[in-house]
Specification:
7-stranded antiparallel beta sheet, mainly beta, Jelly Rolls, rod-shaped
Length: 347
């Protein structure tokens, strides 16, 4: 190891290039040559921490510009810019910071509206690209709110019965079997059928049919004792007052049926009957008119409709003219109430 002698009170010696022994002594030209002060020390080079600790010594010299950059000495022996001196490269609202060359922070300008950030692989800065729509996905569909939710685009034939009185402009054909009454309330149309000992006495609330093909649907609830000859449902009427109905009746048991009526006070025949059913209120009924035939169906949930019966449009009617809701009480002792939550053209 080299030895460098430094005279006290003399000029500053040159910086050592490596570890060395330093001897301090008096300058013989200015001090008593008989008094010598010798100090010997080993000044090693600084060793940074690489995981197991470093060692004391001469630190590495900073490079030009390190001071202006605000660099400080790290424990590993290198000069770096601390976080407190970080300068954001962003200049505009919406900019992003990405890792540039050697991990240096770099500005990625905000993309235009509608563009998506696209990865360009390892070692490449992401970029804004037009959306390709992805792959393997599907367009989300609206969540179903159930059959009772009012349609977003109701037709001119629809009625949710939210008014305080019946819409006379829509329901233009009313056949009311006196003393039955038609009432409105609680967002429901109600037909109150009085006990009747003289036979059938239908009350019908109807409107002109749409131009075929069409399908109408209604949600119906019924209230009354399970006694004979109570009836409610959807109906069609021709210009001569003949009626075809589909709905629920009670004749010793609850029955799904399709009936022909000579008039609101005269039953003709039953075309279809499914007796002994454990039916519960409410139910949904549909009539479909395809321009040639009439199709009648029923549902307990408003989603799944079961075909009950079909016949020609003119098998019994001269031609359908009106469509709507009917209720009847052919019983001398018991009331019968029909409630219609809504009536809609669904196709």
């Amino acid at each position: 190891m080299p030895t460098q002698t430094i005279n006290l009170n003399n000029a500053t010696p040159p910086a050592p290039a490596d570890s060395l022994n330093v001897t301090w002594q008096a300058d013989p030209a200015s001090l008593d040559p008989t008094v010598v002060r010798n100090v010997s020390a080993n000044v090693p080079v600084f060793t940074g921490d690489t995981g197991s600790g470093g060692s004391l010594g001469l630190v590495p010299a900073p490079a030009a510009g390190d001071a202006a950059a605000g660099k400080v000495l790290k424990a590993d022996g290198t000069w770096y810019v601390p976080c407190s001196s970080f300068v954001s490269p962003m200049t505009t609202e919406g900019d992003l910071i990405v890792a540039g060359a050697s991990g240096a922070p770099s500005r990625l300008a905000a993309g235009a509206s509608g563009l998506v950030l696209t990865a360009n692989g390892a070692g490449a800065i992401p970029s804004w690209q037009a959306s390709s729509g992805g792959s393997g996905g599907s367009t989300p569909s609206a969540i179903s709110l159930g059959p009772d939710w009012p349609p977003a685009s109701p037709t001119t034939y629809d009625d949710e019965f939210t008014g305080s009185s019946l819409n006379a402009a829509l329901w233009t054909k009313i056949v009311n079997g006196v003393p039955n009454t038609i009432q409105m309330g609680k967002s429901m149309l109600g037909i109150l059928c009085f006990p009747n000992a003289s036979g059938d006495n239908l009350t019908c609330v109807m409107q002109p049919i749409p131009t075929p093909p069409y399908t109408v649907c209604a949600k119906l609830s019924w209230f009354g004792a399970p006694v004979n000859y109570l009836n409610c449902g959807l109906c069609l009427m021709d210009s001569g007052s003949r009626i075809v109905s589909v709905g629920v009746s009670f004749v010793t048991s609850y029955t799904l049926d399709v009936d022909h009526w000579n008039s609101p006070t005269s039953w003709n025949s039953t075309q279809l009957a499914f007796p002994n059913l454990a039916l519960s209120s409410p139910m949904y009924f549909q009539i479909q008119d395809d321009g040639t035939n009439l199709h009648f169906s029923a549902s307990s949930d408003g989603f799944n409709f079961y075909p009950l019966y079909s016949e020609s449009r003119t098998a019994f009617l001269s031609a359908p003219a009106y469509v709507g809701i009917m209720a009847d009480s052919n019983n001398s002792s018991y009331w019968f109430i029909l409630g219609c939550d809504w009536f809609r053209r669904v196709a």
